[in-house]
Automatic annotation (TrEMBL):
Pfam families in the record: Ring_hydroxyl_B
Pathway(s) it belongs to: Aromatic compound metabolism
Transmembrane segment boundaries: none
Family: Belongs to the bacterial ring-hydroxylating dioxygenase beta subunit family.
InterPro entries in UniProt: NTF2-like_dom_sf, Rng_hydr_dOase-bsu
Lyase in keyword set: no
Keywords: Aromatic hydrocarbons catabolism, Dioxygenase, Oxidoreductase
The keyword Oxidoreductase appears for this protein: yes
One Gene Ontology term from the biological process aspect of the record: 3-phenylpropionate catabolic process
Protein name listed in UniProt: Benzoate 1,2-dioxygenase beta subunit
Species this chain originates from: Aerosticca soli
Source domain of life: Bacteria
Molecular function terms, GO-annotated: dioxygenase activity
Length: 166
């Protein structure tokens, strides 16, 4: 296997592990994939064809500027204090079309398409979100996420959207 193929396999396994962490509700394993200063951003659409480009100047679907902010979301999910999160939906992340775009000593830029199906049992309802991820990964002994940018193509949110939906 060539070095590029080995790296792509390593990145693919890493992205699939992140998806499994979310589907299996292994929130702290999921958090451990992120660097302390990681940025997690799902921008909103400014119009039909353009996403907002500044999370500080417009409303985002989700924006977390550090792992500590992501940990706050995990705390809210686990706390039982949010009535909408008392019974979490069953989710399955489908991650495809994984492509390495840039590999430097500083990191790896990767894109992947996604679809997430979320089934809310008490409502007997399935919601689906789809779009594209763009990651900036740090490649050391283990891969970590420096940035996750999530373009949600169907951004009309039926009821709620949280980290496990995208």
């Amino acid at each position: 296997m060539s070095p590029d193929a080995q790296l792509k396999e390593r990145v693919t396994e890493f992205l699939l592990e992140e998806a499994d962490c979310l589907d299996e509700r292994r929130w702290h394993d999921w958090l451990a994939l992120y660097e302390e200063d990681a940025v997690y951003w799902a921008p909103s659409w400014d119009d039909d064809d353009h996403l907002i480009d500044d999370p500080h100047a417009a409303i985002s679907l989700i924006y977390c500027s550090s792992r500590a902010r992501l940990a706050e979301r995990v705390w809210r999910i686990e706390s039982g204090l949010s009535s909408s999160l008392l019974r979490l939906p069953r989710t399955r992340h489908l991650v495809t079309n994984i492509r390495l775009h840039e590999v430097t000593a500083d990191g790896i830029t990767v894109t992947a398409n996604f679809q997430v199906n979320a089934y809310k049992h008490e409502e007997q309802r399935t919601d689906m979100f789809f779009g594209q991820y763009r990651y900036r990964l740090t490649a050391g002994e283990r891969l970590t996420i420096r940035e996750k940018y999530i373009m949600v193509c169907n951004d009309v949110i039926p009821r709620q959207m949280d980290i496990f939906h995208i």
